Amino acid sequence: xxxxxxxxxxxxxxxxxxxxxxxxxxxxxxxxxxxxxxxxxxxxxxxxxxxxxxxxxxxxxxxxxxxxxx
Length: 70
Fold this sequence. Notes:
Distance between the termini: 30 Å
Structural class: alpha+beta
Shape: elongated
Oligomer: single chain
């Protein structure tokens, strides 16, 4: 799998996260790139009490969407 540019006039949100079960927290990150592949915005967040990797990914998407609306 490789990253592709978004279509003209669009932006792309990429997310990732890590889950530390024993420590009881996760870290999620998001990057937004514009149609030329140029950096638009990014963020990293730490959350407590997360139950799964899927939840981490969903939190990264949520926070990235909020970041895109700023």
